[in-house]
Each structure stands twice: as structure tokens, then as C-alpha cells.
Amino acid sequence: MGTKANSSLDANLGQNLLKQMILIRRFEERAAEEYTKSKIRGFLHLYVGEEAVAVGVVQALNQEDYLLSTYREHGHALARGMNPNVIMAEMYGKQEGCSKGRGGSMHLFDSSLNFFGGNAIVGGHLPLAVGMALASKKQNKKNITSCFFGEGAAAEGEFHESLNLAALWEVPVLFVCENNRYAMGTALKYTHSMEDLEKKGEAYGIRSVAVDGMDLLAVMQAAAEAVEFIRETGKPFFLVCKTYRFRAHSMFDAELYREKSEVEEWKKKDPIPKFKEYLLKENLISQALVDELERDVEQEIENSVAFAENGTWEEASNLTRFVYSELKQP
Amino acid sequence: MNEEEIKKTVFQLLKNIAPETDPSLLMPEENIREALNIDSFDALQFIVSLCEKLKVDIPEEDYGKTSNLKSLIGYLIQKTKG
Amino acid sequence: MTKNVSLTYREALKMAIREALHKDERVFLMGEDVGRYGGAFAVSKGLLQEFGPDRIMDVPLSESGFTGAGIGAALAGMRPIVEVMTVNFSLLAMDQLFNNAATLLHMSGGQLNVPVIIRMGSGIGRQLAAQHSHSWEPFFAHVPGLIVLSVGTHEDARGMLLGALESLDPVILFEYTSMLNLEKEIPEDSGVVDISKSKVRREGTDISLITYGTGVYKCLEAAEALEKEGIKAEVIDLRVLRPLDEATFLASVRKTHRALVVEDAWKSVSISSEIVSRIMEKAFFDLDAPVERLCGVEVPIPYPKHLEDASVPQVSDIVEKVKKMIKP
Amino acid sequence: MIKFLMPNLGADMEDGVLVEWRKQPGDFLQKGDIIADIDTQKGLIEIEVFDEGVLEKILVKEGQKVPVGSVLALINDGKGEEIRESSGDNPTPEVPKILEPQEQAKTKSTEEHRIKISPLARKIAESNGIDLTLLKGTGPEGSIVKEDVEKAISERIANKPVPQPEEKTKEAPEESVNVSRTTSDSIRMAVAAAMSKSNREIPHYFLEKRMDMSKALEWMKESNKTRPVQKRILPVAMLIKAVAKALDEVPDLNATWENGLQRKNEINIGFVVSLRSGGIMVPAILQADSKTVEEIMETLNDLIPRARAFKLRSSELSQSTFTITSIGEGGADKVFGLIYPPQVGIVGFGEISEQPFAEEGMLGIRPVVDVTLSADHRATDGLIGSRFLAALNKHLQNPESL
């Protein structure tokens, strides 16, 4: 587990973090099931295996901080506290969903939680993050903007333009790269001349750190240090989390690009059992409580599916609403 | 109306009915309808336009006098004089 | 009677930016060379000294980066004016404009407004050749979620930006580099203008000349010449290319029963294609003759002056066309 | 008992091939176990099961391709025999067709007196001297459309005399002189096609009868005296009316042959007009039976010049139910016509000429006309044809009742 025992981890926090990871895991598995029954359509990208990154980083942020994610965003949304009901309903396309059913799995938004989406263009949200941090700086706000993306995005021009602008303007952005070793079907060594991605941040004079994304404690610690640095200096930070997705890139993927043995190898580093063992060893939790957490999560998942099933379809006559704003200048 | 004017009108009206022909080439005694390949329908059209243009009335009995240029012109001079 | 003041199109643009910066502290200008250099076309000259580097921000050559940053800043409470030096460089920012700015409000079910203003120098002139002479209004006018304006007169150069400031939706401003040095008179107290309606710039009864941007002054000049030949042409300045104010040009066509649409953009799939379709759909029985169009010749704009001039409709072309339409 | 279905694995997946069962009936299944391998266009994919229980029965053999959603196997979850879906299904909504956002009603055009008419209708109206103000439009927004104008034209032919404006004929000649060769070529081809089809398909029989024209010509001369020159009639108008009345009495000839005799209630007589540049056109005189001789003459005054000026519309060339051809003076004595398919008869009038004629034992010189009938033997027989010729002759002998 993490190099030094994390004294700040009390039982309550530990149990909460474990529950968050279990919630994400079970939610994603149920989403996969509903997809095979055609309840969820379109594209579905699951976060199974990377739970420690979302939970570890998001718990370091506060309510005022802005958060932007990609299409593999359910973990970040749940870690941020978005209600599973409105996420499942959104994936069913119902108007009770967080984006009125219009966005689907790849476009979850909740301005009350400062959760600025689900962006499905790889790297497309990095410039947005820089701009939001710029706005905070100009308005002397203390919040920071965190931005999650995969190692695929690190090859986009917008990644390089954004890091340069963030460093140049010294704006409070936390760039979090979830390096899960495969950009859809292309392994890291086929996409990056420099595989140690944190070195790309250093090239722009940005403090950059790589961390084991399968170890929740390590991620928490790195994230805490990163956020602290940003709040103090106002400067950006680049955190690379080495992680692995246990399932396919999306639902329709025969995973021809990787060996089954490699997946099994990484499953041994599953962040959930590893963290559970740690809590049990440090008797910060009992097995009975673990079972109870599992049951609570199971119920939450059932409720979210029921909520989605009972959801309603937005009227087609609403189609053109919100193409333009209905409010006038505040 | 003098003879020249009548002749010009006759040629012009014949040209209307048989545009691809040249009525001025007609010999005085030549049968107009045969020469210019004019059927009974077009012949009536010709008579009607003559009556309107020269403000005369040509009864059916006088049709015979209109068969060739010479008699037609003579007939029309006499008709317009009176 | 208000006094008139004579100023260039450039000065009118600058007055609008200055007024916006003074009026609302959330406003800031960002773009390549807008600060120390004073603006590629000197539109923002002197503003850095007056407002400081925080509000007049020079940016690196990263159109997608800084345009996206502008959109992000708008999401988070600012009112950025992003200058994309010319529309020719806007292709690199299309992902941010079409996939983010135009889409976020609708896709988020009405949660996220993007009150950003994008200014772009546009159009032909001064022999800048194919890559620096584009007229891409039709691209932007195709995208729902964007408000697309064409600054065809000094009055609009003075006031359109201020109108855009009152909108909560992303506004694209097409400014015309060939008009920057042009001097005209406008009322001294000119200021904010409406940005939702087209405008009848000159009344007429025989034919409607429907145009925008650089076409406005050309059509007014042509109408002047036609008047001497007894033809009263009405000139409609579209001003808003999306969402189109069709009521104004339809009313005009119903009055004149003839229409000629004039623009510099390439003819196929252009603004005029849309205007003609709407007239056919909604004023068909008011037409005495088919609607005609005078547009850009469909070529990459050539460098030599005589070819550049031949690539877009000129005043004489407009006059000849109208005369042929009225007396075939 | 739970149905295990072929899972939906992707936005564009329609079916899958079951390659291999990884579990056999009787095996215990846990949530997440791999139950089978499915082959898709993206490659082989392991399929997991989401329900716990015992694999009861396999319904799809290995190697079989089945669409998404079909039942692959049954799983006994120990909750009774009744076969259930694994969970409720709610189909996506039937999306109503989205119309344009409600545009405001089309604003009325400013000037009140402006006539709404399609460009095509306007063009037809102008070339036929139709007064638009009298028409009521049936097109969109109450506009006048082609149909409205054409109806007005045919009604006008049926009931209102049309002054034959003087300049009309003047305009016609230039028109036909510079007509391009292609038009007369195309007419030649059209006639060729019709005549060869007629010759190929129609078994003609031919009848002939010489008819005394003296009473008719006498009646015509007397009544022409009472008419202005413009309204003077020609014998052909009487012949057409007589044919129309005869067809009224012998309806089998006023018909078409389209797998069986199709009698026509309207009697529209096609009149063969020879063109000065060669070729013929056959415009129809609509409801010839209800028109007076004067009205038939007027129709000819309208149709013949327009035919010769190539200004006839296709609709005017396609409605005849019977045809008349007349050879006129100075040529052949009689003419045997070829039937215009799908009609079943054509009458041919020879030249009206003075001939010896015997009547009641007296021999005299009379103006006579040799009338022929060519008829389709599939549709009628000689008896009907000759009864028609007899009726025709009877009407010609009573011109005043035409």
C-alpha cells in the first residue's frame, strides 16, 4: 500500500472511499448489463479498474472547484457526488437524466456540482479547462479547475497548446492523465515517442508527477500535494496516473489488441480488494460492514435502474429548446 | 385603293397563309391555290383577311373570280372603287 | 438634430471595444498581437496602455487553444472577446466553436451558457491570395447555437459588438479588412444596435438587392446608378446570417416582386442559396421573375489585382444584372 | 426460469454467431461468468451472464447466426417455471414527425389586386388569351395553376365564341417558317410510330359509301349568306358534325380497344391537320356531338392555325375517341385512313366533286363525296360499320338538323 501509513485516514473516510469505489464498480457492471438488453444505446465506455484515480483525485477537490471529464466519465461523476439515478436515467435517454436525456453516457453535466461534462472530442475540453482557470484567476476566485483525460489526448495538438497556455498564464489547472496504456486499440508504445508522459509537462515548465493509479492511497497523496501546490502558487500541475481498464474500450470491442494474460495480471492489482484488505488490516472496517456497504450499493443501483425505467421521454416538440438561451442578460 | 396597294396587300396576306412561298412570283393567270398549295381552310382564311383589310365583302358566288392573280386584282379594284 | 461624425470603419470597431471594456469589467480582449503590437490591423491600438495586460491579452499562435480558453472563460463567468486575426485561421478553432461553443447549452439540457464573442477579419482585398482572402460566412451560418453577424456598415462597426455583449449565446462577428480604412459619417451618438433584424438601407419598388458585409456599400452604389436610369432598387442589409430575419427580405420581395442576392462568398451552398430557397418557399407567388444571384466565382482567390477583382461581383456587375432583369 | 438473450454489444451490431458454449446444461452460473463466445464483425467476444442459477437448456446450436435479442438459452434461477424476461422492457417512443417550427401564417401580399398564379399557368394563359381575372385558383394559397387555365380553355372552346384576332395569323407565319427541322422530324417520327403500331396490331376492315352533298352544300350556301365572312362555315364542319351524330347512334365505334372494347361517353373527334412543312397533327374537337356546326368551325379556326404554328399542347392531342381525315380538293378521289391506336375507327372524306348520280331512276350530275370507314375488326364487324355509314349519310341529307 502507500509508502507511508496515511495517518489522516480515519475509519469514516476509509469506509466512504471504499464505498465510492464499490459504487462505481457495480454501477458500471449494471450499465454493461442494461446495454446488452438494449436499454442503454449508442456508445458506452466503462471505468472498471480505474476507480482509484477518480475517487483519489476528486476527494482532494472542494465544491467550488471546476471538474471536466471525457466520455469515460461515470467514475468521476459518481465520485463528485452525482446521484446514480440521474446518471442511469441520462443513459436511458430519459428527461429525468442530468442533461435531460440529451447527452447520454458521454455527456453528463451538473452545474450545481460544477461538473462541466462529458466531452467526447479527445482533448477538446483541455482548452476549456485553461479558460475556466483563467476566469477564476481574473475574478480572484480561489477555486481550481481539474481536467481528466487519457494518454490518447496527450498526442492531440490541443494538449500541447493547453499546457503551454496554462504555464504561460499561470492559471490553476490540475491536468490528470489516466494513462491506461491503450488509446482504444493502440498501445502506448505505438502512440508516444516519450512514454513517460509526465516529462511532457516538464517541457512546459509545469510541475509534473506520475503515480500508481491502482493504489488509492498513493493517488490520494499525490492529488493532495498537487492541489495544495496549485492553491498556493496558482500555477498548473500535471498528474499522470498509471492505471488499467479491465473491460474493453467500449461495448463493441473484441480486444484484439491486448492479451488476456495481461488483463489477468492487472486484475491482480484491482484497487478495490487491495484497499479493502488495507482497511481490514488496519481494522478501520469489519467484514460485516463491507457486506453492508455492498448491500447498500446494490440497493442504490437497483433504485437507479427503477428510476430510469420509470423516467419519461422528452416531448419532440421540445427539440429546439436551448439551441439559444431563453434567459436575457442577468 | 390603287392597284399597287391592292397587289401589295394580296401578296402580304398570301404570305401569311403560305409563309414558305413567294407570292410575288405568281404568273397572272396561274391558279393561286394550286401554285401555293393552299387548302380550302387556308383559302377561307385568305378571303376573310382580304375582306377585313380592304373593307369589302366577297360573297361565296364570287369565289370563282379569285382563282388567279389577274382576275383577283381586277375584281378587288372594282370592289374597292364602288 | 444630432451632429454627424466622420470616422473610419477601424475607428468605429475600436470605439465599440473600448466602450465594452469600460462598461463591463468581465469583458477582456484576447487574440494574436492584440496588445503590444496594437492589433494585426491596428484595431486595438492603444488599448493595452489603457486597460493593461490582464484585459488586453496577447496569445500564442494556438487558435484552438485560446479560442477554447475563451469559451471556457465564458462558461466560468467572464465575457471574453476572442479575436481570431482573420477567418482564414478560424479552421483550426472550428472544433472548439462547433463542438463546444455552439453545442454545450443544448447538450447540457439548458444548464451551460457560453456568452463568448468571436471577432474575425474576413473577406477579399489587397491581393492576399487564396489562403488569406476567404469568405466563409456560410460555414458558420450553417451551425445552430451560433449567432452570426456581418458588419457591413460603419453604424454596425460602431454598435454590433455592444449588441453582442447583451447576448448569453456565442456570437461570431465577421468584420471586413478591405473596409478598415474607409471613412463614412455616422451620428455622433451612435452606440449599441439591435443584432436580431435585417435592415432596409435604401427604399425601392422595382427590385430587392439582398446582401451583407462588403455587398452593402456596393449595392447602395449600384442603386444610386440605377436610380438615374429610372430603376428604384431597394437594398436589404441582412446583418444577421443566423438566425436569419427572413421577414424583412420577404416583405421587400412581396413589394418589388424581383430579387437579386449579392455576396462575395462562393456561389454553391452559400448564404444566397438559403435566401433564394426561402423566397421560393414563402413568396413564390409574389415573383414576376426567378430570383437571381451574383456571388463569388468558385475559385481559390488569385493574387493579381485584375483577377482578384474579377472573382467577386463589382458595382458595374450589379447594375448590368439588374438592368437585364428589369428589361429582358 | 430466465431467458438468456443474444446481447446487444454495439451501436451498429444487428446479429452474432454463437461460436462456442463455455457452459453446459446443469452447470451453475454466477454473475459475471463467461457463458459463451460470440463472433461479430469486430471479432470474437466473450459473453458474460448477469443472472445466477443453473443453465437449464441451450436453444441455439454452435455456428448458428441469430439477431440481437433472440433467446439463446434458459437459466433456472430457482424462482419457478414461468419463463420471464430478465427485466422489464420499455421501447423508445414513437417520435411524431417534427414539422417546421410553426411559422406564422404566410403574410398576405401587400397589394390586394395581385393575382396569385404559377409561372407555368401564366404562360399558358397568355398564349391562349385567357382573362385571368375570371379564374378561381385551386392551387396552393388559392393560386391559379395549369389545370385551372386548361379547364378554362376547354370550357371556352365548348361554349364561348373566340374572336379570331387579325394579328394572330400574322404572328403564326413567322413562327412556322423558322421552325427548326427537328420539330418536323420529331413529328414525322411520331406519325411513323403510330402508323406502324396501327398496321402491326389492328386488323382493319374497310367500307366505302358515295354520298350526295347537294342538300348540304345548298343549306351551307344559304346560311353563309346570313353570316359575316369571319363566321362563314366550310363543308368539313358539317361533315364533322354529321360523323359526331352518327357515332352517337353507333357507340361501338366511339371507343378504344384496350384488352376489350372500352366505350367512351364523350365524343371527341380528332381532325387530321396537314402541316405545310410536312407531317400531320391530330387535335381533338371535344364533345363534337354537343357543338353546333358554327362552334365546330370556330374550334377549327382555333386549332388549325395553332397546329400549323406548332402551338398545340400535348393535352389537346391525346383526347380524341375517333378520327376524321379529309383529302381536300385537287388530289385523290378518296382516302382510306389507318386507325390511330387505341381508337377503333377512322373516317376518310374524299374530294367533293361533280359526279353522275342516279336517284329514283333519274341520272343527274350531283356534288358527291366518297366516304370511307376503316375499322378494327377486333372491336366491330362490317354490319356495324355499314350501319354507321348509313347514319352518316342520313344526317348529311338533313343538314338543317345538324
TrEMBL record, chain A:
GO terms for biological process, alphabetical: pyruvate decarboxylation to acetyl-CoA
Keyword annotations: Oxidoreductase, Pyruvate, Thiamine pyrophosphate
Domain of life assignment: Bacteria
Gene3D superfamilies listed in its UniProt record: 3.40.50.970
Reaction catalyzed: N(6)-[(R)-lipoyl]-L-lysyl-[protein] + pyruvate + H(+) = N(6)-[(R)-S(8)-acetyldihydrolipoyl]-L-lysyl-[protein] + CO2
UniProt-listed InterPro entries: DH_E1, PDH_E1_Alpha_Subunit, Pyrv_DH_E1_asu_subgrp-y, THDP-binding
Segments traversing the membrane: none
GO molecular function, one term: pyruvate dehydrogenase (acetyl-transferring) activity
EC number(s) recorded for this UniProt protein: 1.2.4.1
Top enzyme category: oxidoreductase
Cofactor: thiamine diphosphate
Domain Dehydrogenase E1 component: 20-311
PANTHER family registered for this protein in UniProt: PYRUVATE DEHYDROGENASE E1 COMPONENT SUBUNIT ALPHA (PTHR11516:SF60), PYRUVATE DEHYDROGENASE E1 COMPONENT, ALPHA SUBUNIT BACTERIAL AND ORGANELLAR (PTHR11516)
Function as written in the Swiss-Prot or TrEMBL entry: The pyruvate dehydrogenase complex catalyzes the overall conversion of pyruvate to acetyl-CoA and CO(2).
Assembly and binders: Heterodimer of an alpha and a beta chain.
The protein, known as: Pyruvate dehydrogenase E1 component subunit alpha
From TrEMBL, chain B:
Domain Carrier: 4-80
Highest rank taxon of the organism: Bacteria
Gene3D superfamilies, A to Z: ACP-like
One Pfam assignment: PP-binding
Classification via PROSITE patterns: CARRIER
Coiled coil, from the record: none
Protein known as: Acyl carrier protein
UniProt lineage: Bacteria, Pseudomonadati, Bacteroidota, Cytophagia, Cytophagales
From TrEMBL, chain C:
SUPFAM superfamilies for the chain: Thiamin diphosphate-binding fold (THDP-binding) (SSF52518), TK C-terminal domain-like (SSF52922)
Pfam family, one: Transketolase_C
Domain of life: Bacteria
Keyword Oxidoreductase assigned: yes
Domain Transketolase-like pyrimidine-binding residue range list: 7-182
InterPro entries, alphabetized: THDP-binding (IPR029061), Transketo_C/PFOR_II (IPR009014), Transketolase-like_Pyr-bd (IPR005475), Transketolase_C (IPR033248)
Alphabetical list of Gene3D superfamilies matching this protein: 3.40.50.920, 3.40.50.970
Keywords recorded for this protein, A-Z: Oxidoreductase, Thiamine pyrophosphate
Co-factor requirement: thiamine diphosphate
GO molecular function, one term: oxidoreductase activity
NCBIfam families recorded: PRK09212.1
PANTHER family noted in UniProt: PYRUVATE DEHYDROGENASE E1 COMPONENT BETA SUBUNIT (PTHR43257), PYRUVATE DEHYDROGENASE E1 COMPONENT SUBUNIT BETA (PTHR43257:SF2)
Name recorded for this polypeptide: Alpha-ketoacid dehydrogenase subunit beta
Species of provenance: Algoriphagus lacus
TrEMBL record, chain D:
UniProt name for this protein: Dihydrolipoamide acetyltransferase component of pyruvate dehydrogenase complex
SUPFAM superfamilies registered for this protein in UniProt: CoA-dependent acyltransferases (SSF52777), Peripheral subunit-binding domain of 2-oxo acid dehydrogenase complex (SSF47005), Single hybrid motif (SSF51230)
Biased composition (Basic and acidic residues): 103-114
Chain positions covered by the region annotation Disordered: 80-114, 158-182
Family, similarity comment: Belongs to the 2-oxoacid dehydrogenase family.
An example molecular function term from Gene Ontology annotations: acyltransferase activity
Keywords, in A-Z order: Acyltransferase, Lipoyl, Transferase
Originating species: Algoriphagus lacus
